[in-house]
From TrEMBL:
This protein's record includes keyword Hydrolase: yes
Entry keyword annotation includes Calcium: yes
Class of this enzyme: hydrolase
Entry-linked Gene3D superfamilies: Alkaline Phosphatase, subunit A
Keywords: Calcium, Hydrolase, Metal-binding, Signal
Protein name, entry field: Arylsulfatase
Cofactor: Ca(2+)
The protein's Enzyme Commission number: 3.1.6.1
Stated family: Belongs to the sulfatase family.
Any GO molecular function: arylsulfatase activity
Top-rank lineage group of the source organism: Bacteria
A Pfam family annotated for this UniProt entry: Sulfatase
Source taxonomy: Bacteria, Pseudomonadati, Planctomycetota, Planctomycetia, Pirellulales
CDD domains: sulfatase_like (cd16155)
Native species: Roseimaritima multifibrata
């Protein structure tokens, strides 16, 4: 402290006056604390499989709790895949920030991408975050090098057994059980994988409560990917005979072979051909059961976050890598461009995010990456093509995607607007058109109606523009000459 001489007394008055002025002007105001980020990621979970999204059969109280606390996007999509393993494409896009075909181009270089600091956790680490990961990874980059802390790294899918395919058959005993740990699967190692994720995440939150730096948690469940195993008490919640058959159920999808989702595709071999109502009921029973079991683990994580004292300054984002058909349109997997397989739940909770609200603006699930970079105060890098959702959450603008692009191998292409969807099967030379307002389950193909041709041509032209923007190499004009300009 300065001695209390007259000159120093005046100096102290001047200093105090200057301090008060600077504080009022915000010059010495403390920097805002960086928010924590908790990213919860499901595998194969369609947007339809939550009570908050209108499903009155399934129990998802903790996911519904998130929806009540935050804002949900009703039209969130995955862009597609360059391989039958749709998970790989989705997660490479997610962590690189690149659109589908650009992500495909760097897929085999993703380790180099991480080393170059262009990987999602790398950006947040550079922003001062302690980065953490547990669960499913399924990217080429080494997770243990990509994150500061890695509790567990799971492969693309749990252990499979031959008994888990082509089932159940009519009037025959089911050779496989969703609740029997002897089949391995989600119990390989002794503890159900969803419970392992819950254990690791809650343990990290207990340590994070004692640290000062912000954290980024990448919590990735393998559930509800097949083999869809859960304890018997969860299976018992959904008696198969009481499960509703989807209104768009078909015994066989007419273009399944040409579109690349036929009898030889692993996902489609889970249930017998032709599909039966009983087989679909059993598959959906197990799908619902493992989602409800995962929901319980998510509840544990949310409780641990609250107990950590970090909840008020934590953004929580829940989504999935893509959806799943599970009997709709005669399909079982995700290798198609119907909404049940490309559209996922997406929920955001954070300071000042409106509670229990729904936004219909179309987005891609990979928009979560640049959203978190903006939260961290990091400018979006030039190679990141997806877009932050914060402007939409603030009510600014109408979103970055007037139409949603979809692609699967060289077998399928689609464009979806608010009111219509055009699906193309180049190997079959078939176009399908749906009125998404009047026919959201995509049951009534309008492509054969001559009056639909102008709309189809408009959508085709828009799709070609998106192909050019997204560097999609597939040429469609020769296959669909009547739609081309």
């Amino acid at each position: 402290m300065l001695p209390c001489s007259p000159s120093n007394f005046l100096s102290r008055i001047l200093l105090a006056t200057l301090w008060g002025y600077c504080t009022c002007q915000g010059i010495y105001a403390a920097e805002p604390e960086s928010p924590n980020i908790l990213f919860i990621f499901a595998d194969d979970q369609s947007f339809e499989t939550m009570a908050a999204y209108g499903n009155d059969e399934i129990e998802t109280p903790n996911l519904d709790r998130l929806a009540a606390r935050g804002t949900r996007f009703s039209h969130c999509y995955n862009m597609g895949s360059w391989s039958g393993a749709v998970c790989v494409a989705s997660r490479t896009m997610l962590n690189s920030g690149r659109f589908l075909w650009q992500a495909n181009a760097i897929y085999n270089e993703s380790e180099a991408e991480r080393e170059a600091g262009r990987w999602w956790p790398s950006h947040l680490r550079q922003a001062g975050y302690r980065t953490y990961m547990t669960g499913k990874w399924h990217c080429k980059a080494n997770a243990t090098k990509s994150f500061d802390v890695v509790a567990d790294v799971r492969g693309g899918m749990p252990q499979q057994t031959p008994a888990g395919y082509n089932r159940p058959l009519a009037d025959q005993p089911d050779p496989w059980s969703p609740s029997d740990p002897s089949f391995g699967g989600f119990w390989k190692g002794g503890t159900h994988w969803s419970e392992v994720v819950g254990n690791h995440a809650t343990e990290f939150l207990a340590t994070a409560s004692k640290r000062s730096e912000p954290f980024f948690m990448y919590v990735a469940f393998n559930a509800p990917h097949d083999p869809r195993q859960s304890p018997q008490e969860y299976v018992d919640k959904y008696p198969a005979a009481e499960i509703a058959i989807p209104k768009n159920f078909l015994p066989i999808y007419p273009y399944c072979e040409e579109m690349g989702a036929g009898r030889s595709l692993r996902d489609e071999k889970l249930a017998p051909f032709p599909r039966t109502t009983h087989a679909v009921q059993v598959q959906r029973q197990e799908y619902y059961a493992i989602i409800t079991h995962m929901d319980v683990q998510i509840g544990r994580i949310l409780d641990a976050l609250k107990a950590s004292g970090k909840e008020d300054n934590t953004w929580i984002i829940f989504t999935a890598d893509h959806g799943l058909a599970v009997g709709q349109h005669g399909l079982m997997g995700k290798q198609n461009l119907y909404d049940h397989s490309t559209r996922v739940p997406f929920i955001v909770i954070g300071p000042d995010v409106p509670a229990n609200e729904t936004i219909d603006t179309p987005i891609y699930l990979q928009d979560v990456m640049p959203t978190t970079l903006e939260l961290a105060g990091t400018p979006r890098p030039a190679h990141v093509q997806f877009n932050s959702l914060l402007p939409i959450l603030r009510g600014e603008g109408e979103g970055a995607y007037p139409a949603i692009y979809g692609a699967y191998l060289n077998r399928q292409r689609s464009i979806r607007t608010e009111s219509a969807k055009l699906i193309l099967y180049p190997q079959a030379g078939v176009a399908r058109l749906y009125d998404m307002k009047a026919d959201p389950l995509e049951q009534n193909d309008l492509a054969g109606n001559p009056d639909s041709l102008p709309l189809m041509r408009t959508l085709f032209a828009q799709l070609q523009d998106l192909q050019a923007d997204y560097q999609d190499p597939l040429k469609l004009e020769e296959t669909f000459p009547r739609l081309a300009p």
